[in-house]
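Sequence, structure tokens reproduced for absentees:
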Amino acid sequence: MCDHYGAKYVMRLHEFATQPKTAEQLKIDALKTAKEKANANLAAERKRQQVAKAQKKLLTVQRIPAPGINVQ
């Protein structure tokens, strides 16, 4: 290596190498991904149910005539 740069500035190749993940790390990553997907699906389903409930209520309110109005 080049001595004129000094030892603290010389980077070794193995410092940049990434190690393959272990089976345990891969399992944790998969579980985290599944958890994030489940949370997103849960939020989407809650929103869907909220919209459906609001639409049903809107239809109910539209069918009821206002008091004092004669509907024929």
Q: What stands out?
A: Helices lie at 23-63. The chain is about 55% helix and 0% strand.
